[in-house]
Amino acid sequence: MADVEWQRLKAQEVRALAEANAVVILPIASIEQHGPHLPTMTDTRLGHEIAVRAARKAYPKRPVVVTPVVWSGLSEHHMPFGGTLTVSHATFRALVGDLVAALVRQGFRDILISNSHGGNMIAMQQICDELAVDCGATLVGTTYVTEAGEDLSRHLEDQKGVMHACEAETSMMMVCEPALVDTSDLAGLAQGMDGGRFLAAGKASYRWRPFAAITANGVAGNPARSTAAKGEAMLEAGAEALAALIVNPETWAAPADLRGAGTGGVDFRRG
Ligand SMILES: [Zn+2]
């Protein structure tokens, strides 16, 4: 198996991957508080792990290379607990845009922005919308939690889906960084189990709130019964979902153009 991590490759090996029309995974994540028991790198570490595993799974069908994780994400809502680094939307947009441009200049044409942090989801979609017309590549944005969906959540016993510093993230970190998980009081950490009103107003409207509005200790979910076995199953499920996305030709196919003869308009892409 060839190495899939960009920063471990020589320049000529990266050039060969561009010539082979490899997919690039550009992971985006965060450095932010993850309760009293997990390190601040949790989303960055998990995003890296799932991207690398996905690349290895997809590689026999299509070459893939994974860039280093963009750790500087949107985490203003976690600032009240400290331990958090955040950037502005404008900075995030500029950084991701510059990295996509650097990939396109080297000949990569299919780019998967792979997100592992809830706070980046809306911005990721906005960036994809904005760059799609001009960037010269096909951009797909994914968040492994939603792409894998039920394949992740069926491993959980004490919460419905992946939350924050929770049964899911704690279990996966027990695999990736076991020495950095403080397991001394997992049973006492459950918080924010009903996080439904966190970003809500009215019946179906949006309001920003800080994470401190739903949790006293920075945890949302119940890490009490976290295990490395659950974590391994969830990492594999997340990686399988991303690999399936990568090797599906429909993911990268040009959009249909159903305009009839004589219909006016302009091209989907500029330039
Ligand atoms: Zn997290």
Short description:
36% of the residues lie in helices and 9% in strands. It is α/β, with parallel strands linked by helices and 271 residues long.
C-alpha Rg (nearest Å): 19 Å
Q: Characterize the main sheet.
A: 4 strands, parallel
Mean pLDDT: 95
CATH class: Alpha Beta
Bound ligand species: zinc ion
Structural class per helix/strand content? Answer: alpha/beta
Name given to the CATH architecture? 3-Layer(aba) Sandwich
Q: What is the tally of beta strands? A: 6
The topology string of helices and strands comes to HEHEHEHEHHHEEHH
Tally of distinct domains:
1
Main β-sheet, spatial strand arrangement: 2-1-3-4
- From the 3D structure, determine the CATH topology: Rossmann fold
Distance between the termini: 37 Å
Give the strand content.
5-15%
The stretches of 5 or more residues where confidence is low (pLDDT under 50) are: none
